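User: For documentation purposes, I need each entry recorded in a consistent format: the amino acid sequence on its own, followed directly by the corresponding structure tokens. There are two entries in this batch. Please keep commentary to a minimum and don't merge the entries.

Assistant: Recorded as requested. Entry 1:
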Amino acid sequence: MKKRNTSSLLDHLTLEGSPIVANNSMNRERELCGTNGYEIELGFEPYAFLCERLQVEPHVRWLDLCCGTDRALIEAALHSEVPNGGIGL
């Protein structure tokens, strides 16, 4: 078994302040769409999915437990054309 070089790992304090979560494509600055958007990783657009669900449900929610800076959620709120806050972010 190959021994891991731990000298290159970040300490806890540095890691907590870092925008990188697991690797360079999984970061705390994830956008709603585009090259750094959720669609690439998930295979669908969360915001479009929620808007579609609003056609059959009065309210929908998006809970992102590891969203970091909430960038995608804030972008969704700013782009929301849903009346009366139908999408809970």
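Entry 2:
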Amino acid sequence: MNVVWRLPSEELEARFVAEAREWGMFGLKGHRSVGGCRASIYNAMEPEGIEALAPIRQRYHELIADPGELDRLLSEGAGRAAALAEPKVIEMKRRMGLLLAS
């Protein structure tokens, strides 16, 4: 039996699978023809793995139920990403000759 689920985007699914791998949870990538995520219960996933996924699932449902909080978190993350990226973008534009050296 597979427990399957989708996240709001393929990027989030890839990030989830990668981060889960860092925690020692493997094989959570969905089937190649449908994507998403899946935990293969028939492949003897340890109860600890299922228990580790439970808070993630709970948080997902909390965020889906509160679009305002989800938007706030996404906006906050976008702001942090922009702040990290801005110096790199400026440097690349300068190197490409799109900006004059200051």
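Summary note for entry 2:
The mean pLDDT is 88.
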